[in-house]
């Protein structure tokens, strides 16, 4: 599998070196509120659910958005480990990323305007099983942290622009 990753990424890198304009890509998602606080999101051909624990008014039928953020960080780290290790010929037997986020519900519930509604702190631990040298794996970890897109997104400000579109039910019929 690592060889497939290496070939795929190697081909992409060569293509982008020839035409840097192809490096700019966009990703899209659509999320629709369903019953209660349940949400169905669609990304490409994939659908996945969001919900809240009962404590927060949900039915606990799926992870909530902030849990998906943690899972996204861990998944992105693992993917970047595989990608870089494949390109550099580093053997990884397994990669497990454990993430934890601390959030104060007073911010989310609007009870204290001095408390942010999102995570106050996120921690992650990467557990690697490999016979490679610790020095080589530590260098790899530094490189992974430097280029992991989700780590970058949650560590650095990102320009976010929202837009509200209001439709009456009468406009939807027809």
From TrEMBL:
Any one Gene Ontology MF annotation carried by this entry is:
peroxidase activity
Keyword vocabulary terms for this entry: Oxidoreductase, Peroxidase
Against Pfam families, the record matches this protein to: OsmC (PF02566)
Task: Give a yes or no for keyword Oxidoreductase in this entry.
Answer: yes
Q: What is its EC number?
A: 1.11.1.-
Q: Which residues form a coiled coil?
A: none
What name is this protein filed under?
Answer: OsmC family protein
Lineage of this protein's species?
A: Bacteria, Pseudomonadati, Bacteroidota, Sphingobacteriia, Sphingobacteriales
